[in-house]
Predict the 3D structure of the following.
Amino acid sequence: MLPRPFTYHRPTSLDNAVALMARHVDDVSPYAGGTELLLAMKMHFADYEHLVDLKRIPDLCAIARNGDTLSIGALATHAAIATDAVIQEALPALAGLCGSIANARVRAAGTIGGNLCFAEPRADPPVLLSALDAELCLISVRGERRVAAGRFITGTLETTRAPDEILLRIEVPLKARTVRYERVVHGHRTVAGAAAVIEHDASAAPRIWLGCVATHPVALPNAETYVAANPGVLDNALTQAIASDIAPLNIADDEDAGADYRRHLAETVTIRAIAGTVQQEVRAS
Ligand SMILES: Cc1cc2nc3c(=O)[nH]c(=O)nc-3n(C[C@H](O)[C@H](O)[C@H](O)COP(=O)(O)OP(=O)(O)OC[C@H]3O[C@@H](n4cnc5c(N)ncnc54)[C@H](O)[C@@H]3O)c2cc1C
């Protein structure tokens, strides 16, 4: 199928892009790598009168470390993140994840911003970025605003992004901490993914997030409390804490996995992520 006809805008400045988004707010979509958007338009899941291509705006794909913050431009591709020396050194878990997403073609075109903004329930980076307590910076004619990664995605293909907002960058605090992301993939997509982040500052709470199983990533508060009180302990009580977090989640059957099997995978990847941080800490000591 072909997409319906649309007007293609190719701004070369951020001001121009923001103005275009505002002018056509009733029927406009930003366009980055196009790996999700064009497919959705071809299938007529999504139809827009105006597409604003963000790829020619300078600096939107910049990756930089500014003191204790890692800044990743929304237009940075998965391949660029996977091979960036700054990210490989400061956040190898994110580099490793982006290097394993999809295939070389999707990694070369698909962007981290497109991944977050599309809010596909099986997307991996939102899970890890939520556990890392990252912040997203968005811009519109009303100015810039920031939102926690863990509060950005609210449901299947739903975010708190206003129709005229452009995601500019993702900012990740760089602290002394152990980070692990574990996932199970079926075909091209993840059926369960979990991130565990253990702060080296013992007064800071662990962050454990699960995604790719329900409509959007969620924190696992019982698991976080258990790990905080019992650092390094991998026992049945931890499994029970994780299971009690997963039990109330609304997990549906789909073509990749039945709901019961997905619950089982969700528990498994969460335990693996926590165990991975323990292993890393043992190795480092
Ligand atoms: C075969 C295949 C396998 C995949 N496997 C995985 C996987 O294992 N794990 C995983 O996490 N993902 C996976 N993906 C998804 C992939 O990561 C996304 O397709 C990609 O990141 C989307 O980025 P894009 O730049 O192409 O977005 P686009 O398709 O250009 O845009 C997607 C959406 O985001 C919006 N958008 C894009 N950029 C911005 C911005 N800066 N500001 C505001 N809105 C914006 C667009 O308007 C659109 O609604 C897979 C995709 C494919 C096709």
